[in-house]
TrEMBL record:
One of its GO terms (cellular component) is membrane. Residues 1-13 have a biased composition (Low complexity). This is AB hydrolase-1 domain-containing protein. Pfam families: Abhydrolase_1. Residues 61-182 form the AB hydrolase-1 domain.
Amino acid sequence: MVGHLPALRTRGLGPPGPTVPPDPMIPACQDREALMTRVTRHFIKVDGRLVHYRRAGQGPVLLALHQSPRDSAELLPLMQAMAPFATVIAPDNPGFGLSDPLPPGPATVDRFADGVDRLMDALGLTSAAFYGFHTGACIANRFAVLYPHRVSGLVVDGFMLMEEPERADLLANYLPAFHPQWDGGHLAWAWHRIRDQGIFFPWYRRDPSARLSRPKPDLTRIHDQIMEFLRAGDSYRTGYEAALSYRPAADMATLTVPALLFAAQDDPLHRYLSKLPPLPCGVTTGTAPNRTAAWDVVTGFLRGHLPVEPAPAVPDFTARGVTDGIAWVAGGQGAPCLRLHDLGGAGSLLPPPSAGAWLAPDLPGMGDSEAVADPGDLAAMADAIAGLLTTRGWTGGEVEGWGYGAAVASLLARRHPGLATRLALHSGITEPPLDLHPVEGGGHLLAAWQQARDSHLFAPGNGVLPGPNRLQAETWYWLKAAPILDRAWKALGAGG
């Protein structure tokens, strides 16, 4: 049976592309289980900067780079399609997803390309085939010019060959600063900024001449985009500015690696295909009717241009990771302590203890963890955390929890007594969380901002508000947890 993968949505320098029906992503000889390839998530330090990446498959390496302001999750369809043939590694670009931004400096594609070079060194990679989409296409194209000996083949998917007046206009207007404000007003601006991107192009030119022939933007899609935008924060400008400032034509004319310069016909950047300069031997162009059909062309090219060397093993990294869908952070030395956050939080938001070794997971369905257990079942949550501890070789120690995390900690101690030698339990939020499901107009964003504020103002403690940047991080995690908050709160009230 031929499997199907969802289409990638176009969300980059241009407006989002139309939704298209799924088409076969891999040849018919591949059965459906090939699409169920396990995708794992990892972290690594590169020049002191944290990089988060996804990995799937085995064999020679394909490096896949996403667009702005998204993260590597948008490349999951490509990862599943190519995993039967290659080890696909998809990092979050600097400043996006869970990757730290680049150090302060100019917003240039060269700096992003140099970051990929250093990432390859850290991962032990000699060479790879490259795929890049929009911003990722700019980075991949430039990387192939700067480091051709590390590139076995290249797909540049969506690029801009602008006249200078168009470039100047975009650079002057496309990238306003984004800074959290005490009153949450930045959230209303962000909502309409992202929504208008699906109505006008460019988004800031709100007049009939810029109106797109598209239906009303889909609420779920807007919410997904706003979450990506909010997580990047003001760092979104660096990736965008690097892409907008890049002039790829000269690099394309001098490529020395096999390359496919591609744009699907439903991609707003398709119009630039006709502006390409004369290309060297081995560099071809391509298109397809839509984003879904594009994958047949893209994956066909990539399969024919993979490197010879297989990927090395995943480098060990003990400070942060994702184990069986549960994200965690760890640190310190000495007596171990497990720390479990309250409802709607994340382990990374907890302050580290003053002494001892500590492990702070994101509870399933919250933080950056997947919903590997039902948050409405406290026993299942405790068992999931026990599974994490067992996998990580935990032999027992103190368990500290806040609110919902305290309830999970109590059940963990009862159900798995060998894992908890001592409990330290603290109160948490005292009122039911607000309904944070997406609503037209973006009101749920302000509700989440209020939820984050009230969690400090009206919870046990001194009622001191943190700064707006911290509140913004907490707001993001409240929004992430929206689908499970009601079930989790009811489970807490029922005592498990």
